[in-house]
What does this fold into?
Amino acid sequence: MTTQYEPTEEDVNIIAHQLKRRQITKPVKILRRCRWGYPMVSLAGCAHRKSYHDPNTTVEQQQKSSKFHKEAREQKIQRQKQEEEEIKDERPIKKQKLDQSGNYKGIKGDEEAPESNKPKKKRQSFIPVPGTMVWLTCPKVRLAIDKVEENGALNVLRQIYDKEPKELYDSHDAYANFLRKEMNDDQLFVQWKSANQVLDKSKIEEIPYQRYGNAGQRIQHSLKCLHAHVADFLGGCYEDKTAQRGWELANHLNEEGKVEDIEDLCEQKLPPITEAYLSTLDCSEGCAKCDAYSKSSLYSKITSYY
It folds into this structure.
């Protein structure tokens, strides 16, 4: 029911605008769009490089700011080098030589130290994988889930899952299978599951620390955030029944932002999933928060700068 898209520069800037962030890591893919074509759910990227976004500055200001930060970094590096040289000059000269047991020990003098035959350990570099991989960006849906949580739905669901946690456990397992498929990279998945403690995909059974669910919590019976669950549900993880309950509650908000009979809604049988069911909270018209930015003259300036 969902169609995946390669994110464009317009998507990146709109998502940053939706999340009210200055810069974001470019998503790997857009998992779902609303009926108006704006990103609703995205799969997070793991790259260090971030896409620049600031809706309140011009291109000239961006270039000036970038140049300023670059010069500041160079000056900082130069100061650090000077401080290291000053400290080095004040220290007594220490060199290495072998003692009777064959170990090196520090001494003073002019005798040159022999070079070690031991191979230097190479530090393994890797890209850290964040705990939350699927992001809900739609302003309207985020606000609806905010209202659901304000109504105390999290506490009600927690009390239910304290007695019968199977549905929550199954939701965590469903998300893990969904994420592994979407990542299409066993090593990255193992990094996510182990909170970046295991880098070798062959050691997946030896993970000492595990993440559960899209919120990345380390306690299996914990329900941390409905936003994270609803994000993976709209993104295609339809077996996440915890998320569907959050979606049901969002669809039962009244005009005052209240949900009546939360306990009954949290325990009732869930309806079948259809495309119409997943589009119930789509805007009747193009969202002003998304539409205003994408059609602004500032957006055309930023895209031309890229």
